[in-house]
């Protein structure tokens, strides 16, 4: 293991690193060089459409240099870490690459995160900088969140705001797009390609999201291969209405896939069909990525309006949660677009259906892995291989799958095998043609339309309420989102107790004040006196689910 590898991150064993290099997967390019190469190859191509602004590759590269230079003047330097929580705006990519260029690790927070999550990122990393918006789409005041984080974290020294900066620094003052001679810029201090480039976030099955250290080499390998599989090229225009920082949006093939081939990212802040269709029409969008919950309203709207937005739309990628077979069928038959299912995870492994697969493979499976060196195991509860085609736990290891979460030794012992396979928590089966089918989850996680909820995190927040005696969060089926959350609560009655409806409202407000992201607040709360228990004395969630 190289001794300069990020402390607290688990490096790939040398024999694997060597193999991945020999096979040409890891090419020794860091993300800063990656952008330089594209800026040189496609200087005048449009890289980003954002509102009324168009940004070429050359302009993007100049803005990144300017931003890195100005950030370095604040004293930010290689080895630092920064929480980035920006909306779908070009500033996100500029800040991301500027931090990379300075050798600073971005931590990829989502706009939906609140104090509970964002504070935990500062606690886990001692990050010294925070980049956020003034208000989000939901009119949430991120500057108030920044103040709260600053009070709780002495490490947080620099706060940069997109929009009205109040007492903080302004992000838009960090860069411009004009052509200045490059020598005025600070030289790149980006870490070498085999080092950790940034920290992605896990969907999380226990507690708050865990940090996922991704190296330049491993990430860019997945990006290049994904761009090929998704058949992206210079004329591709990818609509980006999912949160920009998510792994799907970044790399599957995502914005980085687009930047690799010289295409354009069309940014939108609202995934509704009304807004998205307008953008598709205006920019002649060729590709879009969605979570399953968004697909249904798109199909409905297109059917209602007899809308022919699809003349330019070549491919609709759907991933993040299981796409229902019936919706997949409707997409292909009615929406008349090429569907690509994407089954991936921020920890690494990504599977895609391919465009040349037959209709059944595209509708009923989640496709094939990216690399022949993605090693896949399907095991039973005792870690023994299941029969071919049977359902089991998915474990994986490969050239772009992490070997451990950041600073999580204890957790890593459970989530990774001795020989480095990641226990994904997904239940799958592998068909004879090699395609993977996701059958469910074994980990305690609710997948609410692609947004992952760690049951334990919400349970732990609820139990801190003085009148909550016992709590269990379970998934309930939902037609639109796939799953929603229901909290079963045993309530400590008091004199003058409010009605159940009032109690539910109180608990929801309590969780909001606690700082949980909105999507984690239970969709339903049910009060029960006695919980069912398993033979081991654990709360019997299966029985609770039957009561729904
Ligand atoms: C993506 O990444 P994460 O880290 O937010 O969530 C990963 C988990 C998977 O382990 C699986 O449980 C679920 O999300 N999932 C799917 C799925 N895609 C993800 N379950 C069923 N069908 C699918 N197509 O969600 C992610 C990362 C990269 C690309 C795409 C999605």
UniProtKB/TrEMBL annotation:
Entry-linked Pfam families: AMP-binding, AMP-binding_C
Coiled-coil region(s): none
GO molecular function: acid-thiol ligase activity
Domain AMP-dependent synthetase/ligase: 37-406
InterPro entries xrefs: AMP-bd_C, AMP-bd_C_sf, AMP-binding_CS, AMP-dep_synth/lig_dom, ANL_N_sf, ATP-dep_AMP-bd_enzyme
Ranges where the AMP-binding enzyme C-terminal domain occurs: 457-538
Transmembrane segments: 91-112
Domain of life: Bacteria
This protein's pathway: Siderophore biosynthesis
Keywords: Ligase, Membrane, Transmembrane, Transmembrane helix
PANTHER family, per the entry: LONG-CHAIN-FATTY-ACID--COA LIGASE (PTHR43767), NONRIBOSOMAL PEPTIDE SYNTHASE PES1 (EUROFUNG)-RELATED (PTHR43767:SF1)
Protein name: 2,3-dihydroxybenzoate-AMP ligase
Organism per entry: Acinetobacter apis
């Amino acid at each position: 293991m190289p001794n300069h590898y990020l402390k607290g991150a688990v490096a790939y064993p040398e024999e694997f690193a060597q193999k991945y290099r020999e096979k040409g997967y890891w090419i020794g390019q860091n993300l800063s060089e990656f952008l330089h190469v594209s800026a040189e190859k496609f200087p005048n191509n449009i890289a980003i459409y954002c509102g009324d602004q168009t940004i070429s590759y050359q302009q993007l590269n100049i803005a990144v240099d300017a931003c890195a230079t100005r950030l370095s003047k604040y004293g930010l330097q290689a080895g630092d870490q920064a929480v980035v929580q920006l909306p779908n705006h070009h500033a996100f990519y500029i800040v991301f690459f500027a931090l990379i260029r300075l050798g600073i690790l971005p931590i990829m927070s989502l706009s939906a995160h609140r104090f509970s999550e964002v504070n935990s990122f500062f606690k886990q990393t001692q990050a010294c900088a925070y980049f956020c918006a003034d208000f989000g789409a939901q009119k949430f005041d991120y500057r108030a969140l920044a103040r709260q984080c600053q009070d709780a974290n002495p490490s947080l020294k620099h706060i940069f705001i997109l929009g009205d900066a109040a007492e903080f620094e302004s992000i838009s003052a960090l860069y411009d797009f004009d052509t200045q001679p490059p020598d005025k810029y600070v030289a790149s201090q980006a870490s070498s390609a085999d080092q950790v480039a940034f920290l992605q976030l896990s969907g999380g099955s226990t507690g708050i999201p865990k940090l996922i250290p991704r190296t330049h080499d491993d990430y860019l390998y997945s990006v290049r291969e994904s761009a090929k599989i998704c058949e992206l090229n210079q004329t591709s225009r990818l609509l980006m209405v999912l949160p920009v920082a998510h792994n799907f949006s970044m790399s599957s093939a995502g914005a980085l896939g687009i930047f690799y081939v010289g295409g354009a990212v069309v940014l939108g802040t609202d995934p509704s069909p009304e807004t998205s269709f307008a953008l598709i029409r205006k920019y002649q969008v060729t590709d879009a990525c969605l979570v399953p919950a968004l697909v249904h309203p798109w199909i409905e709207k297109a059917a209602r309006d007899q809308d022919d937005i699809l003349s330019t739309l070549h491919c609709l990628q759907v991933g993040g949660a299981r796409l229902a077979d019936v919706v997949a069928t409707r997409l292909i038959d009615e929406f008349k677009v090429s569907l690509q299912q994407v089954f991936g995870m921020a920890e690494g492994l990504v599977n895609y259906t391919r465009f040349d697969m037959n209709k059944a493979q595209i509708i009923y499976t989640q496709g094939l892995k990216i690399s022949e060196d993605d090693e896949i195991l399907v095991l039973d509860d005792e870690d023994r291989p299941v029969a071919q085609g049977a359902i089991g736990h998915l474990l994986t290891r490969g050239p772009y799958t992490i070997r451990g979460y950041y600073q999580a030794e204890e957790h890593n012992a459970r989530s990774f095998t001795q020989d480095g396979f990641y226990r994904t928590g997904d239940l799958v089966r592998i068909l004879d043609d090699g395609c993977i089918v996701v059958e469910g989850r074994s980990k305690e996680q609710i997948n609410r339309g692609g947004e992952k909820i760690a049951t334990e995190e919400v349970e732990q927040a609820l139990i801190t309420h003085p009148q909550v005696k016992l709590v269990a969060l379970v998934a309930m089926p939902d037609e639109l989102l796939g799953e929603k959350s229901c909290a079963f609560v045993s309530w400590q009655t008091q004199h003058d107790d409010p009605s159940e409806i009032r109690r539910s409202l109180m608990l929801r407000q309590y969780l909001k004040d606690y700082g949980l992201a909105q999507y984690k607040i239970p969709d339903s709360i049910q009060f029960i006196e006695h919980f069912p228990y398993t033979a081991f004395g654990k709360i019997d969630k299966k029985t609770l689910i039957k009561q729904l």
